[in-house]
From TrEMBL:
Belongs to the AAA ATPase family. BCS1 subfamily. It holds the Pfam family AAA_assoc. InterPro entries: AAA+_ATPase (IPR003593), AAA_N_dom (IPR025753), At3g28540-like_C (IPR058017), ATPase_AAA_core (IPR003959), ATPase_AAA_CS (IPR003960), Mitochondrial_chaperone_BCS1 (IPR050747), P-loop_NTPase (IPR027417). GO terms for molecular function: ATP binding; ATP hydrolysis activity. Residues 244-375 form the AAA+ ATPase domain. This is AAA+ ATPase domain-containing protein. The keyword GTP-binding does not apply. Its cofactor is Mg(2+). One of its GO terms (biological process) is response to stress. Keywords: ATP-binding, Magnesium, Membrane, Nucleotide-binding, Transmembrane, Transmembrane helix. The chain crosses the membrane at residues 12-35. Coiled coil: none annotated.
């Protein structure tokens, strides 16, 4: 039997050993910390690491992607090894700085005392230790960027350089990405019930540009200037305290290029398009949710606003219950400020006069653009686009067409149709157009004569057709 004295003595010495080990461990740790501190104190450089994934390990870090884009654009020419990958949609190649590569960058903004600061960027890949269980594809390695710089630039790097890298990187991403066309037509959720509040998207690939848009060149130039000023106007809008948005009302008869103009705007600005189908929006609150889901650098389009929804000032103002004029007006101005900005909203209509003036007053719809019937200037552009011909090559036919276009209202869509029908035979195309214009002119003359007869004989009403 063990003596209780011996037992206590044994326990005591065991405790002493444990305490001794703990003390030794703590000493080692504190020595390490101490050495690290000395090392850090003596090392004039510091590092910042940007990891590929957010803390949740699922979402890729926006900052990482911006750094990647920034380095690819501004520093890739300095590294000997690049990496090429296919984009998510497998349609484009995407080049970035390869793993274990090092590159330099310099900057002057915020650096005191003149001269610039030089920074060293490293692209690294870390592999988890073999004990870690890999549960998700992509977990087997993680990429990171590390930037190293002199400690004296700490404030300038944090306050000026890195925000600038983020901003520029995002611009590069925006430039490289494919434009999207979103629409809110009814979708279905997993329970099979109708979902009206979501956007679905496809790649936006419309060939229209301002070069191919046939309209008065001066008006076109003014619109392009306006869009340019808007895109570059971030500081201006912030300075004057206005939400960074702009409204355009495109009005004109069918086939005059309103939808084509929206596509040209999107391609010009490199903005996504949100095609808002108002007939699928049942209430103000749904409209609000849809709007909040839109992203910056986008054009929100409501086509045929007069026909989409019967919204007039007299609509019942039942907020959230149904779509009302006040809901629409909130949508256009009140909500903008809550959503970050850089959005353009475009309404199109064939009947401007039918719209409630409150909806389209300046400030809401900043610019009213009339898309009109095809006149000579627009025709010359269409002839050049479709047939690659100039005025001097078909002088006589052009002259005849010019005169007829002054007298007859024909939409650019109809003119384009005639230029397309006999594409291989330019002469035949132009002659077919002359015939069509003459027929339209005859019809117009006949209608006018009929009107005069009605006036002279004092008849009222039209035919009962
Ligand atoms: N101004 C134009 N310049 C170049 N092409 C045009 C122009 N207007 C119309 N078109 C041609 O006609 C077709 C129809 O034009 P678009 O759909 O833009 O007309 P719209 O004004 O939107 O008509 P709607 O009022 O019926 O919606 C286009 O595909 C385009 O090829
Ligand atoms: Mg249209």
């Amino acid at each position: 039997m063990v003596d209780s004295k011996d037992l206590w003595a044994g326990l005591g010495s065991a405790l002493a050993v444990i305490v001794g080990l703990i003390t030794m461990f703590l000493n080692i740790v504190s020595i390490r910390l101490f050495i690290n501190r000395i090392g850090a104190f003596l090392n004039p450089y510091m590092q910042i690491t940007i990891h590929e994934y957010e803390d949740d390990g699922v979402e890729r870090s926006e900052f990482f992607l911006a750094v990647e884009a920034y380095l690819s654009k501004y520093c890739a020419n300095k590294v000997p090894r690049l990496k090429a990958e296919l984009s998510n949609d497998k349609r484009r190649t995407h080049v970035s700085v390869d793993d274990e590569q090092e590159t330099q960058d310099t900057f002057t903004d915020g650096v005191s005392g003149g001269g610039g600061a030089t920074l060293q960027w490293y692209a690294l890949t870390v592999y988890p230790s073999s004990q870690v269980i890999i549960s998700r594809p992509g977990d087997e390695k993680r990429r990171l960027y590390r930037v190293s710089f002199h400690k004296k630039f700490r404030a300038a790097v944090l306050d000026s350089y890195l925000p600038n890298v983020f901003e520029k990187g995002r611009d590069v991403i925006a430039k490289n990405r494919q434009l999207r066309l979103y629409s809110n037509s009814a979708g279905w959720n997993t329970r099979g019930t109708d979902v009206m509040t979501c956007w679905s998207h496809v790649v936006f690939k419309h060939p229209a540009t301002f070069d191919t848009l046939a309209m008065d060149p001066k008006v076109k130039e003014a619109i392009m200037d306006d869009l340019r000023a808007f895109k570059e106007g971030k500081d201006y809008y912030a300075k004057v305290g206005k939400a960074w948005k702009r409204g355009y009302l495109l009005f004109g008869p069918p086939g005059t290029g309103k939808s084509t103009m929206i596509a040209a705007m999107a391609n010009f600005l490199e903005y996504d398009v949100y095609d808002l189908e108002l007939t699928a929006v049942e209430s103000n609150s749904v409209l609000r949710s849809l709007f909040i889901e839109t992203t910056g650098k986008s054009i929100i389009v409501i086509e045929d606003i007069d026909r989409s929804v019967n919204i007039t000032s007299t609509s019942k103002e039942d907020y959230g219950a149904k779509l009302t004029l006040s809901g629409m007006l909130n949508f256009i101005d009140g909500l903008w400020s809550a959503c970050g900005g850089e959005r353009i909203i475009v309404f199109t209509t064939n009947n401007k006069d039918k719209l409630d003036p409150a909806l389209i007053r300046r400030g809401r719809m900043d610019r009213h653009i009339e898309m009109s019937y095809c006149r000579y200037e627009a025709f010359k552009m269409l002839a050049n686009n479709y047939l690659h011909i100039e005025e001097h090559q078909f002088f006589e036919l052009f002259g005849e067409i010019q005169q007829l276009l002054e007298e007859v209202d024909m939409s650019p869509a109809d003119v384009a149709e005639h230029l397309l029908t006999k594409r291989k035979d330019t002469d035949a195309c132009l002659k077919a157009l002359v015939v069509a214009l003459k027929n339209a002119k005859d019809d117009k003359d006949k209608a006018k004569a009929k009107e005069q007869v009605v006036e002279i004989h004092g008849e009222t009403g039209g035919s009962p057709s």
